[in-house]
Write a structure and sequence with these properties.
Layout (H helix, E strand, L loop, with lengths): L1 H27 L3 E6 L1 H10 L8 E4 L8 E5 L6 E8 L10 H9 L8 E7 L2 E7 L3 H7 L2 E2 L2 E7 L10 E8 L4 H9 L3 H9 L3 E3 L2 E2 L11 E4 L3 E11 L5 E8 L1
Helix pairs in contact: 1-2, 5-6
Length: 249
Amino acid sequence: MKEVCYTACMETDIEKNLTALAEKSYSSGIARCTDFLSASEMTVYETCKTRLSYASPRAYGGYEGAERQVVRFGEGKFPVVCLKIEPINAKFSDKLTHRDFLGSVLNLGLDRSVIGDIIVKDNTGDLFCLERMEPFILQNLTRVAHTSVVASKYEGEVSEVCETEQMTCTVSSLRADCLACAVFHVSRGDAEKAAENGFLLVNGRQIKPSFVCKEGYVLTLRGKGKFCFLEERGMTKKERHTILALKYR
């Protein structure tokens, strides 16, 4: 009972904060932004987005399909930047994980809300953060785990940060758990359990295993990755759906 009450209070506080920002933006004509919202907080945003539509809300996390996102009310620039964190000497670097990068950043004394997604590839971390935190991180982040690193601002198009892979799969239905099974090669039971525990997200929102996805939806399975359900390409002779997915690597 206490856990339920806590969650309800948390959601109420988030909704109040969103409402206050929307009203300030609408009355002043100046864009107002939240910090990065978690998946559960984004679920709250989705429930009240229509009610706050008068303030032109929009969410963005630095790239298409981001899990953690900043909500902006009004027109203006999103205060989100991408930093590249890479070993100074790749030859002697540890094998670095998402947990390593996140832990090192938070050990600088930063709050999780100023940090967005972290994409790890080739032992390099692409870290999304609030623009105001850029100078601090560039100056102070010198180690990840036991590896000396250097941080720099990502100069390319943000869309280039994520490597993708198109894949064709067949699924019994367009339920979220079925799509996750096919793309990530996990069992149906594991996918259902992940959804029930809030680890399977659709467009950043926690969903039920039976949630039916539409083309363009982005699914995230914690610990496995994320993908975009691009399109349905018809039915097989065994009456299974053929789908095209874009998997983020």
